[in-house]
Design goal:
single chain; 100 residues; alpha+beta; five-stranded antiparallel sheet; 7 strands; 24% helix; globular
């Protein structure tokens, strides 16, 4: 009896996890940096605005994953991570992103 209850609970949890997957992953589509001047880089910042410290400069073609976006003033800022280094996260302007 106890094993049956455990299996039913585990199956329910697995089904809930799998059904939530696509909705949670919707923002995790791949984007690339696009439209930055050839002699410049998109600045990845510590927060959603130009007043935050620059973490890294990203050249055109850099692949990113978006986690969330928010409007701050007249700019839409997205919390992103590098596709090849997912632990490196910061904020970039939405205006310089293009879906891959």
């Amino acid at each position: 009896m106890r094993g049956t209850v455990f299996c039913a609970l585990a199956a329910g949890m697995l089904a809930a996890t799998l059904s939530a997957g696509p909705a949670a992953a919707a923002w995790r589509d791949r984007y690339e940096v696009h439209g930055v001047a050839d002699d410049d880089m998109l600045k990845m910042r510590a927060g959603p605005g130009t007043g935050y410290v620059v973490i890294l400069g990203l050249p055109n073609g850099t692949a990113l994953r978006i986690h969330s976006c928010q409007q701050t003033g007249g700019t839409r800022w997205c919390n992103v991570s590098l596709d090849r280094a997912p632990g490196l996260k910061g904020y970039v302007s939405w205006a310089y992103l293009r879906k891959l």
